[in-house]
Amino acid sequence: MTEVSGRILTADGWIEGRVVWADDRISAIIPADVAHDAPLILPGFIDLHCHGGGGADLMEGGDAAAKIAALHARYGTTAMLATTMTDTVPAITRAMADTGAVMGAQAADQAAILGVHLEGPFIDATRLGAQPDEAIPASIALIDTFHALAPIRVVTMAPEADPDGTVTAYLDGKGIRVQIGHSSCDYETAAAAFASGRHGVTHMFNAMTGLHHRAPGIVGAALAHAQHAELIPDLLHVHPGAIRAALRAIPNLYAVTDACAAAGMPDGDYRLGTQPVRRCGNGVRLADGTLAGSCLTLLEAFRNLVSIGLSVEEASARTSTIAADYIGLWDRGRIAVGGVADMVVLGTDDFHLQHVIMRGVMAEGANP
């Protein structure tokens, strides 16, 4: 048995005391007096959209997924979806196969890779953002090929790539979440997609039709109808005011990093798939200035959400619990008896990351 003491954000609210676990499962939460400066114990962060980190990019294949999972674990991410990007079918196939191999032999210092977020190639070629120009129509055959190599949990797909909804219906039937992203569709098309209740939004506000009062676009449809959406809270991709608007309108808004290889690394040149990118400060861009993913960690995302006015409880939910619920994982994203022992231990004043507990293994945290 192992334990940690502090102010614990449980599934039922705050408790002062101890969390006890055996192997990888929480066995008890015991109320007890703690010091006034005792640390905060929160659910481990969960990232459903992450391309890279520590100098590695998922599309490189090989052991890139392992390097990415290890880097983000140092910053409190205890579980994640490895995220592909638009590329040739052979390149995506290789990335999927190598990610599947990594998933079968993960080390204790790596965030659990829960599956894959397939971002592209089923997107609109006019809304590539930082994605390479390899967009193609959606295909059930390709979905099956990729899914056989590594489990797909989320697919970003433009409605334009699946105009009759056949592939979307197929994914829905398999329990795979479909998200609108990298799309130029109008309000009416997006609203119809959200009517199913299963459609989320990929990096809300970015690479999609914006809100105009006579042409509300995807943003307007999401604010009016979406139940779920991911958002990159690096305070560069989205203004804090827009974040606040989305928080009021979309019940299950959750944070993602959309991190590339530059996450956890110094300023310099990196790659996002086939694209050369440069990190400068807290931004990552193509040569033409286009934002190219981020260098965000979920620890920074949590701090940023608190800095714009969210409570610790809400910031924790939006960097952990909501993401777990979205992909149907009820034993992650919360501190509860029987749940996976995934937690972060933070200082009370500055949210200094003291420890990361992953599947019952405690490690020191890194702090940017």
- N-to-C terminal Cα separation, in Å? 31 Å
Main structural class: alpha/beta
Number of helices: 9
Write down the CATH class. Answer: Alpha Beta
SSE string: EEEEEEEHEHEHEHEHEHEHEEEEHHEEE
Percent of residues in beta strands?
Answer: 25-35%
Helix proportion = 25-40%
- Give me the Rg, rounded: 20 Å
Stretches where pLDDT is under 50 for at least 5 consecutive residues are none
**Total tally of structural domains:** 1
CATH topology, what is it called?
Answer: TIM Barrel
Shape: globular
Number of strands: 20
CATH architecture, please? Alpha-Beta Barrel
Strand numbers in spatial order across the main sheet: 3-2-1-4-18-19-20
| Overall average residue pLDDT | 95
Largest sheet: 7 strands, mixed
In CATH, the homologous superfamily goes by the name Metal-dependent hydrolases
GO biological process, one term: N-acetylglucosamine catabolic process
InterPro entries: Amidohydro-rel, GlcNAc_6-P_deAcase, Metal-dep_hydrolase_composite, Metal_Hydrolase
Pfam family, one: Amidohydro_1
Active site: 258
Could you characterize what this model shows?
The structure is a single chain. This protein is of the alpha/beta class and 368 residues long. The protein has one domain: Alpha-Beta Barrel (TIM Barrel), CATH 3.20.20.140. Helices cover 26% and strands 28% of the residues. The chain has helices at 64-73, 89-103, 140-149, 166-173, 187-194, 217-225, 240-249, 298-307, 312-326; strands spanning 2-10, 13-22, 25-31, 40-43, 45-50, 52-53, 56-57, 77-83, 112-119, 152-156, 177-180, 200-201, 228-231, 252-255, 268-272, 275-280, 283-285, 343-346, 353-358, 361-364. The strands form five sheets. Strands 3-2-1-4-18-19-20 form a seven-stranded mixed sheet, covered by helices on one side. Strands 5-8-9-10-11-12 form a six-stranded parallel sheet. The protein starts with a strand and ends with a strand. Substrate binds at residues 130, 206-207, 214, 237, 291-293. Zn(2+) binds at residues 119, 182, 203. Pfam families: Amidohydro_1.
